[in-house]
């Protein structure tokens, strides 16, 4: 990161971020208007960030769960991403106004936040205008290149992914770490991905699974189930709970919930990266 005049420039994504998030809380509509009206660092083309963009500045080892370059507050923060089932007014989104938000106290990404509720917002600029709040997201052009039957490259992040994940089924977090470190596809060294990396594969326009199904066949998904994918880090301060992402629609959490809760799972899958 490079910091100047209240703006944090991400040297990897090339996005510019508001260093200090809003001190006022807003509904989604008002948060979007706030960012559009923001003038900061000599720029006036600010906007509300998408869910994937917000994920790019998260640090799940901290609380608030943002990189140290930012002045951060805890609690929920808005994004400019509406939940796809709310956009379509279908399934669990019918009659609802649920939108994506981040709980900055721990980094959980939730689709259970009402667009009409009030929360803070951290604005962003760069890389185009982003999709409008109620517009179905469109994946970037030529996002993936198939390297082999087992590998696919994300042309935007540069990451190379295992296409199908572990074939042995549900495993513990320790087993997932061992599985990825022992993987030898293409004669390369592999590892378990971070939450941030797993989030880059989420297709905002899809549910069940929310991922490119051609590039990543047989992706597991399912709310209130074991169909999660392990991330590389433990919950902050825990030696037993670990982070994961569920491609049902891309929500994240750590497996510390009581039986039957959305964040209760006893084993998960591994999708390795290099």
CA distance, first residue to last residue: 23 Å
Q: What global shape is seen?
A: globular
Order of helices and strands: EEEHHEHEEEEEEHHEEE
Query: How many beta-strand segments?
Result: 13
| Structural class assignment | alpha+beta
Helix-residue proportion: 10-25%
Percent strand equals 15-25%
Helical segment count: 5
Topology:
Blueprint: E1 2-4, E2 7-9, E3 16-18, H1 28-36, H2 51-55, E4 76-82, H3 84-88, E5 98-103, E6 108-114, E7 124-125, E8 144-146, E9 151-154, E10 160-162, H4 173-181, H5 195-199, E11 229-234, E12 242-246, E13 251-254
Antiparallel strand pairs: 1-2, 2-3, 3-7, 4-5, 5-6, 8-9, 9-10, 11-12, 12-13
Question: Would you write up a description of this structure?
Answer:
The chain is of the alpha+beta class and 274 residues long. Helices cover 12% and strands 20% of the residues. It contains 5 helices and 13 strands. The strands form 4 sheets. A 4-stranded antiparallel sheet has the order 1-2-3-7, with no helix packed on it. The protein has a 3-stranded antiparallel sheet with strand order 4-5-6.
Structure keywords:
single chain; alpha+beta; 12% helix; 4-stranded antiparallel sheet; 274 residues; 3-stranded antiparallel sheet
Summarize the structure.
The protein is of the alpha+beta class and 274 residues long.
